[in-house]
Amino acid sequence: MSRTGAEIRASKQKPDQRSWIKRMMGGPSSTVTVSETKAKLVQDRISLAERHFGQLCDDVASYTRKCARLRDKGDQIAKDLVDYTEAETLNPSMVRSLSEFASNISTVQDYRQAQVTRLEAKVLTPLANYGLKCKHAKNDIKEGMKVQDLEVSQRKKLDRLRQKSPADRAQLTMAETELQKASVKASAMTKNLEQLIDKFEEEKLKDLKKILTDFVNIEMVYHAKALEVYTECFQNIRSFDVEEDIEEFRAKMQPSNSANRMNMVRSSSYTSLESASEQQATSSIRRQHSAPNSQNATPIKSTTNNASNSPLRATADSRNGVDDEESEEEDEDDDDDDDDEDDDDDDDEYTETETARTETARSTARTDKPAGQSEKTVIRPPSSLIKKVSK
């Protein structure tokens, strides 16, 4: 039995009406629309987290680098202070204070190094890892979107078959089966996306809370330790005695009168010692030049007036006679040698010097003797005269 055109038109309109009713009542098409909306929401949330977490990662990395630079500058300050204390020769109070201050500053930089290490491990690394997490989440969303697109394409194919060949039940049944499979996959993917977005949001909030908590704890520990050490630095500066150092500096610049006197005495004593040594050296040189030769010169001892009355007068006369003979022989020898004249002059000077010394010694002996004692002069003849007389 054939159908009329009105029946055919009515049969064509019924699927559209049923599909519209199902869409209004939350049928498969509405499910697809909801899945697409959820997928877009998840994708937007992941992109937002990726963007802002990346910015936080860059900021924390810059902050960590600045802390490391502060650590290096603090170490340089401590090194410069140590060099200054080693080069300083005055101001002992300042040297002590700066040495302890430099040690404490170096301790602060050790705490800053611990701060940098903890920031890199507990703050910077988790933020950097969020880039990889967001990338994996985006890949999962793409897979879910492919399944949803497959469901939409199968639904469109079924609609076309119903419009073109509504009497072909075999193709319609096959298309409906494929659509049902795609719908099951899309539903499973929708649930997975829901779980994914739920898990992602939960991990994001927990990780952000932990990261910021670690950041605050790291900063609090550093600043607490640094505050303790900076308190010691303040005490080091308080122990800096300016008056003591300035008094020592003034003492070095303006020494006391006693010190001046001691310096003057030392300089005068050094001058007198140098002059005495120069005079002694000059006199020794003069004596060496004025000393007679032992071979040609024979010292002659002069006698005083009291010696003329002594019983050794004859001996003296004989000695003079012998001396005259010796002098004649020496004169004959002097004619043969021109250098002996200089020696005779030296002998005369030496004889005069010895005579003056003998008279001075005798006058001193007379004054030292008590009154009433008789003065006696003993003249000893030279050994050469005694030998000649004995011969």
TrEMBL record:
PANTHER family reported in the protein's UniProt record: CBY1-INTERACTING BAR DOMAIN-CONTAINING PROTEIN HOMOLOG (PTHR21223)
Q: What Pfam families would the database entry show?
A: FAM92
Give the coiled coil ranges: 179-206
SUPFAM superfamilies named among the record's database cross-references: ARM repeat, BAR/IMD domain-like
Which residues lie within the region annotated Disordered? Answer: 253-391
A single Gene Ontology CC annotation of this entry is:
ciliary basal body
* Acidic residues bias locations: 323-352
Q: Which gene encodes it?
A: LOC111133209
What UniProt keywords apply to this chain's record, in alphabetical order?
Answer: Coiled coil
Where composition is biased (Low complexity), the residues are 267-277
Its BP terms in the Gene Ontology are: cilium assembly
Q: What is this protein called?
A: Protein FAM92B-like isoform X1
